[in-house]
Amino acid sequence: MAKRVYIEFIVCVGCEACVELCPDIFRMNNDGDRAEVIMPEGGSEECIEKAINICPADCIHWDD
Question: Domains (ranges, CATH) in the chain?
Answer without folding.
Answer: 4-63 (3.30.70.20)
